Amino acid sequence: MKISIEAKVGLIGIVTLVVLIWGINYLKGRNILNSTYSLYAHYEDSRGLETSAPVLLNGIKIGYIDAIDLMPEANPPVEVTLHIETAYPLRAGSIAYLFSTDLLGSKALRIEPSQKEEYLVDGDTIGSVLELDLISSIGEQAGPVLQQIGKLASSLDSLAIRMNELLESDAANSSLEHISDISALLHASLAPGGSLYKSFDNLESFSAMLAAQEDEISSMTSHLNSVSEALDSAGIDKLSQELVAATGQFRILLEHVNSGEGTVGKLIYSDTLYYHLENLVSDLDSLIIDLNENPKKYVHLSLFGKSQK
Prior knowledge:
The chain has about 300 residues and is an alpha/beta fold. It has helices at about 5-25, 135-170, 170-190, 195-210, 215-235, 235-260, 260-270, 270-295, and strands at about 35-45, 55, 60-70, 80-85, 95-100, 105-110, 125-130.
């Protein structure tokens, strides 16, 4: 059977087109000869993820990103379509981590497998997590530090302004002048002939005198110890005990007197004796008045030495 030139040209064109399509997809990381199933993952931010980015499991490519769509009404709003080769079935509960593959910011998905018995099927949604890359992590950690540095710089600026205002004020100048005067007075006092110089000199002389009289001071201390021992041997402790006992007896006596018990207590607190003395004084007063007024009533005198009745 003879094939026409037109058929050959068409067949070559079809083969060329198929090879071209396969080559383009292969360069994009897609192998159209392998069968795949689709899964969906949702993220708050794509972080620069691109289509054809690899999907890795234990470091091995098992699929690729087919599409990235923004769905404003959804939460999370970014939907990523994954094509996974059927040779790598994923269990339900697996997690797709969006991470950076290098310092340049290239993104990919890493599958963290689950231990559940069920498997994901075509059209299911896989769990998703945004993993911070090195630059983002440094940025998040450096943000609070930079804020603290900014606050510190602002505080230092305010402190510098206040210090300048303080140094330029009359009070600061007056304080500096007072400090200068005090320093001059101290310098003059510490100079030879000054008051502090003389005081230190006197202290030095007194210390030298104490050192010279060390033996006499020791002798005086010994005598004081002897006197203390003599007082101890003289029965000071016994005398103190007797004084304490006498004080206790005197306190008991005062308590009895204050309570009105005994002769002394009755004499002090009873008013009977007062009334008797008052009546006696009144009677004596009446008697003296009557005696002055009527002396003849009590005294009878006679020229012949006999009384007359």
